[in-house]
Amino acid sequence: LCLDLADWDATEAAVGAAGPFELLVNNAAVAELQPFLEVTRAALDRSLDVNLRAVLHVSQIVARQMIAQGLPGAIVNVSSQASQRALRDHAVYCSTKSALDMLSKVMAMELGPHKIRVNTVNPTVVMTDMGRINWSDPQKSAAMINRIPLGKFAEVDDVVNSILFLLSDKSAMTTGSSLMVDGGFLVS
User: Fold this and answer.
1) Sequence-separated (6 or more) residues with CB below 8 Å from residue 166
2) 93 counts as catalytic
3) Residue 16 and residue 6: Cα distance in Å, rounded?
4) pLDDT digit string, tens, across residues 36-76
5) Which among 7, 22, 97, 136 counts the fewest CB atoms within 10 Å?
6) Separation CA 137–CA 102 (nearest Å)
7) Is residue 103 part of a domain?
8) Which helix or strand (DSSP H or E) is residue 23 part of?
9) Which of 50, 81, 90, 93 is an active site residue?
């Protein structure tokens, strides 16, 4: 499906008609970086729409279908190390990712009785198109890499492998957790 997840009605129609689902990965995100004193309403609204509201909405649609099927399921929300650590010019991004972590915990609590597990992966900078756009300045990226004990940014496969683990039966007793895929950034 190709749709704008910020469009509540279009998302409801498209995702509601798809399925049935047993697994869900919420990975859509925007990162509109602005200094705190310069945050615009447009950047805040867009970030809330995509980084939080869309996750809540898509997860509601899919979880309702999972419950109706009576089968266990798993949801993984892609968050960020930025949910745990303040980063300059990331006021909105850090805030939406922190909210996503808490939403995931509430979802885990409420969906657990239906045998639906909910977790987050919280990567460091990942070398996607968005990661390259926001971290291409060598001076900016060097300051971040110097705070990562493993000395590098994550690759897509690092995050995908963590997601696959959380979706699999190998994590059957894991719910409401955040798996840091940050190269040690949060321990430094």
Assistant:
1) 74, 76, 117, 119, 121, 174, 179
2) yes
3) 15
4) 999 999 999 999 999 999 999 999 999 999 999 998 999 99
5) 136
6) 32
7) yes
8) strand 23-26
9) 93
